[in-house]
Amino acid sequence: MVDVAAIELLGIDKRFGSVHANKNISLSVAKGSIHGIIGENGAGKSTLMSILYGFYQADSGEIRVSGKPVSIRDSQAAIAVGIGMVHQHFMLVENFTVLENLMLGAEGGAFLGRGADAARNELKRLEAEYGLDVDPDAVVEELPVGLQQRVEILKALYRGAEILILDEPTGVLTPSEADHLFKILEQLRDQGKTVLFITHKLREIMAVTDTVSVMRRGEMVATVKTKETSVEELAELMVGRRVLLRVEKQAANPGDVLLSVKNLTVKDGRGVVMVDNVSFDVRAGEITGIAGVAGNGQSELLEAIAGIRKPVSGEIYVNGELLTAANPAKLRDMGLAHIPEDRHHMGLVLPFEENENSMLGYHHDPLYGAGPFLDLEAIRKDAADKIEKYDIRPPDPRLKTANFSGGNQQKIVCAREIERDPKILIIGQPTRGVDIGAIEFIHRRIIEMRDAGKAVLLVSVELDEIRGLSDRVLVMFAGHVVGETAPDADEKTLGLMMAGIAA
Ligand SMILES: Nc1ncnc2c1ncn2[C@@H]1O[C@H](COP(=O)(O)OP(=O)(O)OP(=O)(O)O)[C@@H](O)[C@H]1O
Ligand SMILES: [Mg+2]
Fold first, then answer.
1. Does domain 246-335+422-503 have CATH number 3.40.50.300?
2. Which of 29, 373, 378, 499 matches a 20 to 30 Å C-alpha distance to 314?
3. Which numbered ligand comes closest to the C-alpha of 43?
4. Domain map of the chain by residue range?
5. pLDDT tens digits along 99-149
6. Ligand 1 — pocket residues by CB below 6 A?
């Protein structure tokens, strides 16, 4: 058998102004394999995939598909050579059905003019072949994210994709949805498809890939067989130093209650009760973790405490003072800082420069100028200091925030909120999309906050994160706090509680 590579990249180079995002990258991806790509935030992974998918053009270099040089000017051209992308921020029309989404934009494709019946049959065939069960007549917005992602995969397959690119596909999935995705990817591979899979989770790399390539600062630094490597080695290849993969901390020294939630009930935008009569305290010098599968009310709880969402009933006390439904500015003045779980919608204004986001919400601080005038120099100096301390890349306070990679955007938010030295820190998903070196860094900052006597409330769907950081763990299910456990409770007990089955 002659092994023709599904994809070959030869000397791919790409700059964005002063940022050299891809440096002379060469890579060969075997047909019928799952090929992982890892690398620090800003290493250039998404850029490289965007070049393959025709979203960006390389400045130089060559792409070969099944041995043939191709020019991929846009996503149509990518689809024409059999490359499909499963987007992280799904590109589906939410109020259309699965079938309608599938047919949409595929007119020029393989099933031209065959109509809805033919499309339905083809969908059924694909579903059966790859174990991708979805109801063709379901409206997309009513499907959970795991199923929406399946529709994205089906859409790519429907267009005849032989090569599938998935850029951080598990960030939005529950652990069981992620497991299901891996089964699907394995099935795709076993049928001869090629999968390119980007993730920050080394455990996922070990679980599902055949080969893994490591990028660092725009360069491709290594490609190894998954079987022949280890999480430790990959971490070191990525970051260029040894990484502490476990959180190290001393026993907590809990003090006074600084944040108290009493009988809180919160509805979501559609009027559904998401937080139902919840009560708990958060003490100084302690990290209170809230575990749970995404969508069980954690987001609404955090938003209510941060003053972004008005609760229906109940009380929130900050430092003993009743502050239910106070506005975020007032809460910030009271020493409450918030790292929101959705950095794009709540943490940052993406079209603004980095230095503007670096002080967002704190512009009244005398540090940034007296009276009505902002001291731009002070603001940029302050931003530059945070960039250095948090190793935000590229180190340019004037760069538009949208042009930082996902993980670096998260560091901008963390730096802003932590460096305020608040009394109370409430945190949602602090390391979503963040690389392992930066996770280590952010985790250490959170522990330092605790050790400095701050009250920390941490919400995360990553069980490892909750168990590694928390001093006590509350579990949320269907809007209720269903129980409390020690962070070293075994995974099974926690899992059962998270599924609403009392342990
Ligand atoms: N449109 C753009 N304009 C300017 N700079 C950009 C643009 N897109 C990406 N960059 C820069 O190119 C570099 C590589 O970014 P890229 O998004 O490829 O990183 P990544 O490896 O995917 O990171 P992450 O793990 O955080 O997603 C970063 O420094 C980023 O700021
Ligand atoms: Mg990326």
1. yes
2. 499
3. 1
4. 5-239, 246-335+422-503, 350-421
5. 988 888 665 544 455 678 888 998 899 888 888 888 999 998 888 777 888
6. 16, 19, 21, 39, 41-47, 393-394, 403-407, 435
